[in-house]
């Protein structure tokens, strides 16, 4: 298999792709980023491919980003939302997908609340599957666009120090970021209240820091996560005010550092809780770059997996 080909026909999680796959996605995304900054932003690369976006959970940014990426590649796009579908009437995941596949769909981009739903599907249907988030498990394209944005800003990530701050326990972004950054040779720490740090996370080769100021003083990049109240069945923190007091990133903290650091956030930002506005909008922040890079990275993933599909057919 050449280095210009993905090692897998699906993107189920960062855990299941190689460092070569990641670098191939990044190199392809660089080319697409150049294209989407031209006056004519479309290319005919996926003109004969039909892609179904299946979102069984609410999403704004990820869904729009994928749809834009698909349309920039000239694919035919079918959007499916569980809220107005037969899923509400008790239809199974497999029935739903098989009904959609009977319409001759080639690729499925899916977000689902159940961890492992994509694996289940990949064993039952013959299409390329891209994980757009499964429960608290993984969100691989977010990790890829995060690492791509870091690399664009600070160069090769090997040996760089990255801290992931916030609700690590409920975050699929954190897990995918850890897998991706470790594969690229970065040093990774997690920082947050003890109640929001998973018990055995050090087994993934990351360090734990409970003091936000020490974490910021150590890192080159701080990727700050949203507090996911909708995934918390019990109370993990006394209040949002208390969280902000101890773990919110404030401008005065950055002013005290002896080196420049990069601030990131996968969105949506709870301003005044995880990040103060003067941090989110400061020269330290690459949050808007992440949004732009998300389209280029997702174009790269779709393009490379479609190539894998065409090879399998020939």
What does this structure look like?
The protein has 314 residues and is an alpha/beta fold. It has two domains: 14-139 and 292-313, Rossmann fold (3-Layer(aba) Sandwich); 140-286, Aspartate/ornithine carbamoyltransferase (Rossmann fold), CATH 3.40.50. Helix content is 39%, strand content 14%. The protein has helices at residues 19-36, 61-72, 93-101, 117-122, 140-154, 172-183, 212-218, 240-247, 251-255, 277-280, 287-313; strands spanning 50-55, 76-81, 107-112, 128-134, 161-165, 187-191, 207-209, 221-224, 262-264. A five-stranded parallel beta sheet has the order 7-6-5-8-9. Strands 2-1-3-4 form a four-stranded parallel beta sheet. Helix 4 links the parallel strand 3 and strand 4 (128-134). Helix 2 (61-72) crosses helix 11 and helix 5 packs across helix 6. The chain is globular, with a radius of gyration of 19 Å. The model has no long low-confidence stretch (mean pLDDT 91).
């Amino acid at each position: 298999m050449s280095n210009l080909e993905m090692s897998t026909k699906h993107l189920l999680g960062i855990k299941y792709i190689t460092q070569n796959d990641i670098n191939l996605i990044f190199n392809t995304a660089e080319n697409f980023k150049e294209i989407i900054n031209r006056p004519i932003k479309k290319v005919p690369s996926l003109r004969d491919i039909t892609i179904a976006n299946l979102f069984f959970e609410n999403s704004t940014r990820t869904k729009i980003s994928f749809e834009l990426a698909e349309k920039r590649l000239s694919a035919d796009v079918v959007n499916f939302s569980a809220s107005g579908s037969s899923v509400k009437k008790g239809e199974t995941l497999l029935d739903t997908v098989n009904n959609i596949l009977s319409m001759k769909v080639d690729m499925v981009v899916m977000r689902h609340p159940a961890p492992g739903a994509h694996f289940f599907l990949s064993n039952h249907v013959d299409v390329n599957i891209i994980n757009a988030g499964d429960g608290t498990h993984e969100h691989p394209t977010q990790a890829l666009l995060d690492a791509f944005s870091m690399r664009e800003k600070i160069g090769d990530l090997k040996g760089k120090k990255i801290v992931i701050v916030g609700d690590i326990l409920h975050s699929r972004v954190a897990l995918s970021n850890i897998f991706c950054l470790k594969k690229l040779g970065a040093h990774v720490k997690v920082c947050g209240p003890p109640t929001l740090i998973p018990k055995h996370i050090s087994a993934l080769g990351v360090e734990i820091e409970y003091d936000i100021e020490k974490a910021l003083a150590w890192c080159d990049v701080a990727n700050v996560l949203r507090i996911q109240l909708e995934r918390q069945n019990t109370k993990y923190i006394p209040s949002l005010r208390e969280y902000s007091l101890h773990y919110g990133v404030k401008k005065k903290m950055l002013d005290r550092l002896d080196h420049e650091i990069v601030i990131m956030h996968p969105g949506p930002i709870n301003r005044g809780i995880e990040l103060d506005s003067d941090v989110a909008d400061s020269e330290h922040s690459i949050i808007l770059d992440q949004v732009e890079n998300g389209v280029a990275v997702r174009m790269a993933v779709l393009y490379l997996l479609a190539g894998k599909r065409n090879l399998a057919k020939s």
